[in-house]
Amino acid sequence: MTASDVAAPPAPHPVTDRVREALAISLRGCDELLPEADWLKKLARSEATGTPLRIKLGLDPTAPDIHFGHTVVLNKMRQLQDLGHQVIFLIGDFTTLIGDPSGRNTTRPPLTAEQIKANAETYYTQAAKVLDPARTEIRYNSEWCDPLGARGMIQLSARYTVARMMERNDFHQRFTAGTSISLHEFLYPLLQGYDSVALKSDLELGGTDQKFNLLMGRHLQVEYGQEPQCALTMPLLEGLDGVEKMSKSKNNYIGITEDANSMFSKVLSISDTLMWRWYVLLSFRSEAEIAALKAEVEAGRNPKDAKVMLARELVTRFHSAAAADAAEADFNNRARGGIPDEIPEVTLSGAPLGIGALLKSAGLAPSTSEANRLLDQGGVRIDGAVVSDRGLKVEAGTVVVQVGKRKFARVTLTA
């Protein structure tokens, strides 16, 4: 055989300006893109052949509601979707039965099939507020995990070693600390990786805590003779406090189904520093637009202007432009000391009723002790007047009670 008889490797596809732009969009705000060179080749091939890439995001329906922190990855999916690629919204109804051990120092308690079904029913409806439903493929990993059976599970487990599995930080830390690790937890990354095989994905997205699982998909695709996917991790979004990651358990979150007024005012409550982080991860404005806006603020423009623009964009996305207009007007009215047009109506009995008990019963404070703390801080108003007397007894009648800047209730108190 001569050198001329050996087939030459296929010429690489050209990296055009459109491909470079697609790479820049992929990298915006991301933590890691592994391997970046492979993703560039995939983008170039897609551009040259007109074949969309398959981009996968898996979410386990462990809770029924999605907050802004979840949308960081969804936003990236939408950006890639707008480039013409096929996005796959994968609901991990099978893997949720195991429980993702990522970032855990204890075994995650599994949900029941009924809980998983109830949560999954709301997941995509909420995600569709970010993704384009017409261009989104919805899949459930029970489609291929259930048919695996015991034989298939054993064959899949043979594709990875215990030593490699123990390199994972959370498993290594728990083993070193003598904390129990259940055998079924090893199955979670294997099955998430097998999802990539079943879907023939080109790219999988996830939070930074998902890196091990994403690379597992890449490894298993090679094992099954497929071109390996790339892995793109997005940072975890800081919550309203600007310190901890956004979490319902830490009460520093904004749910995407919250009412427009609450959503708007919560965005306005974040710090001026955190605002720019949110712009990069949550806004659909271009990086050039954000940079220009930041330069204006640094040159003396009121940062509140930029924060209002961000709040309006997010409220419009999850509600409507009209709702954003109304929410801004409501916020400005309350900033002037006004009362919102729509506030909860509460009817209580037992007049005269102690102010602490009233705040708790009206849902304005979680406990009497917290109510007393709010009173001491001057955070309670009745009909616009500050109340600081813990011993106040509220007589029968109707009053507007305000706690802080955002909580209101029209309370009708009867004997």
From TrEMBL:
Its EC number is 6.1.1.1. It comes from the Bacteria. The keyword Nucleotide-binding applies. It catalyses: tRNA(Tyr) + L-tyrosine + ATP = L-tyrosyl-tRNA(Tyr) + AMP + diphosphate + H(+). GO terms for molecular function: tyrosine-tRNA ligase activity. ATP binds at K248. Its main location: cytoplasm. The keyword Lyase does not apply. It is found in: Cytoplasm. A motif ('KMSKS' region) lies at residues 245-249. It is an enzyme of class 6 (ligase). CDD domains: S4, TyrRS_core. Residues 353-414 form the RNA-binding S4 domain. Keywords: Aminoacyl-tRNA synthetase, ATP-binding, Cytoplasm, Ligase, Nucleotide-binding, Protein biosynthesis, RNA-binding. Homodimer. Belongs to the class-I aminoacyl-tRNA synthetase family. TyrS type 2 subfamily. Catalyzes the attachment of tyrosine to tRNA(Tyr) in a two-step reaction: tyrosine is first activated by ATP to form Tyr-AMP and then transferred to the acceptor end of tRNA(Tyr). This is Tyrosine--tRNA ligase. It comes from Pseudaquabacterium rugosum. The gene is tyrS.
